[in-house]
What we know:
Low-confidence stretches: none
Order of helices and strands: HHHHEHEHEEHEEHEHHEEEHEH
CATH class of the largest domain: Alpha Beta
Amino acid sequence: MNFQQAIQTYKQLGLFFKQAAAEDLSVFHQAYVTNNWFTVDYIKNALHAWSEELTESSLTNWFSAYTEPHTQQKKVAIIMAGNIPFVGLHDLLCVLATGHSALVKLSSDDYVLMKWVIDALIDINPSLANDITVAEGMLPKGFDAVIATGSNNTNRYFEAYFKGVPSLLRKSRSSVAVLTGNETPEDIQLIGKDIFTYFGLGCRNVSKIYVPEGYDLTFFLDHIQSFYSHIDHHKYANNYTYHKAILLMNLTPHLDNNFLLVKEDTHLASPLSVLFWESYKNETDLMYKLSLKQDEIQCVVSKIKIGDSVPLGRAQYPAISGYADGIDTINFLLNI
């Protein structure tokens, strides 16, 4: 495909997503049975988020920043994560839009939904049947470049295994929220959305909050009570019970509102059902603390503007032109 063909194809995919999100499709329930983290509500949430971005205007703006691809078609292997619904879709859209073919290794956690999307893409644009191959079992050799997403440990394996092949490799990252102390109850609820959407499994989910010295954390906990229903999910509840036991046995100071554990910690990535917090003295101190962790941060959520910060409640609604880890995927693909 070229960019113009991609715009028309992806626009139709956005309309397909919008319609699907309004229905109760069997594939949603099949995905939930395969992976209990993928509730029907959160699958539909992901479809809504994608349909907002797969519009002609957003797609046109995205591709307008690049020169139309004229390079020879290459086969690009994509090793997808599966922590939240459709998390590997952006890489697939990038590969196809730049005129390459995709050799896709789906995550077992997101196999059902991504296979459904691939089938939908081919229904919309039958020519893509020749450009998308889903690898079953081991990833076959013969690809020209690779895009892979995994944990920090997995990434070390990727670096060795794909040595000598043009590669875009992503490590684990976490997201943070910066509070000023002037947030309203409604603002806190929006931050709760950034914490709890997809149960906090995404790299764009807030796993830590930075608060001014003396901040009353009970105010924060009191105003995220609307997310209490997450404790009714058995896998989330198991994590909460386990981490609560660990904190109690180790006599670790923490706060607990019966569905979220809040602990002071200098690290970014908190365990599921646990939120880290750290205080800052002033803006200079805050910016210094953030700079120390810049290579670990996926996005910063804040009511005030801090660099490329994301508005409250929008962490899981990235723009189509945004890139994980800040690495321009389209530019990488245009230059392999």
